[in-house]
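Think of the structure tokens as a kind of shorthand, similar to the way a musician reads notation: each symbol stands for something richer, in this case the local conformation of the backbone. In the example below we present two proteins back to back. Begin with the first one, reading the sequence and then the tokens, and try to describe in your own words what changes along the chain.
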Amino acid sequence: MIDDECNEIVSSVPKDATELEKVLFVHDYITSHYEYDMSYQNRNLYTTVRDKKCVCQGYSYLFMYIMNKYFEIECTTVPSDACNHMWNKVKVDGKWYNLDLTSDDPTPNLSSLANHTYFLLSDEELKAVSASSVSNSNGGLYVEEQDIHRTWNVNTWYGEPVITAEDDTYKDSIIHNVSGPVSFIDEKIYCFNDKNELSALDLSTNTFTPVYKDTSKYYWCVYGDNKSAYSSHFNVTVAFSGKLYFNSPNKVFEFDTKTNIAKEIYEYTEIPDISKTYLFGLTVKDGNLCAEYTTNLMNGVESFITIITAPKPTETPIVTETPTVTASPVPTETPNVTASPVPTETPNVTEVPKPVIAYESKITPKDDGTYTISVDKKLETTDTPILYVAEFDENNILIGLKAVPYTEPVSVSAHDDSQMLKAFVWNIGSQPISLVSQIVLTKPVASPTPTDVPTVTGTPTSTDTPTTTDTPIATVAPVSTDTPTATTPADRR
């Protein structure tokens, strides 16, 4: 199920896309098709994909999974206790950047409210983004959460240095002004610019080229009030069956990218009052092009109106041949022949193949209290393995997770509350995630202080010296082919 969904996401990315474009298209797909889980339950990859809703861990794990496995782009998660939050760091064209899908997918869940405020920021830029700038990008529709990144300590990840993002190449990128997902069609990226004009976006030159300006006249009334309108616009572009579509408050248009002409294909007429007409975006749902309808913006999507159904493949008709009439032959009696017994061969026993492990990880404790994690290659392969390091407390609750492409032994220090380290390897080139090598190391428990020998006074009746308890030896759990199931701590936003 997870890989079926990931293949669907990856199929929306052009085959010759750059690393920047791959990151952008996956970011936009997730923020426009997934919603924040207000029940704070969905934290792992499986429930995220199953329900299409999650908290910050789900957004971060799904994005990292796709980047690492399908595009071999270096990506990791950034957990922060201080912020009670998790986001991603991704390496684009050799440089690291922050990317926060959770903050770019504000409530309510509408495709038109998929932002790019937290797209490819340096560490300093991430901490500098203010709550007011986020609120302004949403037209002041609702009160935003406080800036969750201000209290983040960039220099620590559970006691060890983290990957720093110092490059500010995209500081002034116009992509930060785009609300709503971008669409790729006819070798161009389309979206609405900050003037709500349908435009072609060129990331290499950081420019918008308006192709249809009538959309700048659209406005969305506050429900039941023809004299008040939201400052935001809720147009969305969608590429569907090789064509480009976008919406107005009550209509859907097909746009010809060769002639730059928009043709109306649908109008919502059930409610004639334009102040009560709410098409707040377009999306592809169950293979159909649908308009997102709602009367209360804070409720998110109330219903999906099918605009175009998924095209069905044409069935090839089955040609029935006319049977040829053949005369029935006269049966000839067959003499009875006694067959010689055929010796029974001993069946060949086929052994059940064992899972192939391309890499194995090993944890070695060091005298300074840190641990060295190394990876041994078991097969001839040129793929770069992904090393995952997880920390668990005494209740087997996950309190730390790190994922890095492995090139040399990694030194880590455990969190104070950590009772267990688990390291496992995923060979992204050929091995599925279920075939991993796992080693579990329990942290040593400190030896009790020996009791002093009491002083003998008077009668020489001595007290035996207490025996010092030996320091327990760290144990290594047997290798398992199953990925450990982790219980996630309290929700991160």
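Once you have a description of the first chain, move to the second and do the same.
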Amino acid sequence: MADLSATNLPILSKKNWSRWSTQMRVLFRVQGVSSVIEGVKSAIEIHGTEDQKEEFKKKDDKVLLIIHQCVDDTHFVKIQNANIAKEAWNILVRCHAGGEKIKKVRLQTLRRQYELLQMEDGDKEV
């Protein structure tokens, strides 16, 4: 597996979710641990051998460590009590998933307000 260097790992901040999450997914694939955040655990828990369960636990711990290393203090506080990587990942997804929708709604609202202001200014000139 590729060596993880802390200087090369992206750090999640309030503004870089899209890029960070994409980079992290690629990193997880390179490390051979992407199955941990893709929800494979339940199948292994139900049908897996003890060796498979042990291997999955090692992968889960690795992903959780990587996530902990790649978030700023604000995000760490949100995920610090997560016991498994998928839980931490889902918390981060929930924190940022609505962000894009909120931005779009705000932008639409501002556009509409701008249009109304232009109409008011136009009405005053007549």
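Compare your description with these statements about the second chain. The chain has a mean pLDDT of 85.
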